[in-house]
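Support reply, case 0932

Customer input (verbatim):
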Amino acid sequence: MLHFVAQAAPSGYCDSYGRNTSYFWLDSITVGDVSIVSGKDGGYDFKPDTDIVFQPGDNALQLTTGYRSYNYTIYWRGGLDLNGDNQFTSDEQLFQTSSRGPVSVTASLPETFDMDSATLRVAMKYGGYPSACEVYYYGETEDYVVALQQPEPTITLEDTYHLTLDSNFKITRNGAIGDDVVLVVEKNGSVVFSRNAASELEYRYYSNTQGSD
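Our regenerated output:
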């Protein structure tokens, strides 16, 4: 009877690697403006320090295969552990594609993240798509720790005031009497009108200097 013992990759995730990289290997990946050229790593490599940043929404990646001679068809699959449970589940798969050379893919991420960083696993294999945890014959797997850029916070201003100015130089603001609002009017870079507007909703502005409208 044969017994198989699961081993952990240096990244702490399940094993995924190729036994043979003599004919082709994962040469580089590019995410945004960051390129990581790794070359032949013997079937697996772990990169804990990268400058790769993923943003909410779509992220462009370019995957490049290194070939010894003939351009075999390569099957790619990538996953990102977004919940930090040390697994690459089916709902965390970012892309799946095949190519005979460099190929561009799009990784779509949710609009919010619970973590500041995550592990990206990119596997490339001959003969079919690699699973998240697979030891295969031809190909290579690389794990990268990447940064997750948190979305910009949405600021809602509840006390936003709007002003209108009619042809008689009457300034009208929305809101309610008693709101603590300061009105400032500039002309040619100089302040010509400034007052606390808490007690009124309409004000008169005029300038009787020579040449004024």
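We compared this against your earlier run and they match. Two observations from our side: The chain has no helices and 16 strands. Confidence is low (pLDDT under 50) at residues 1-7. Please reopen the case if you see a mismatch on your end.
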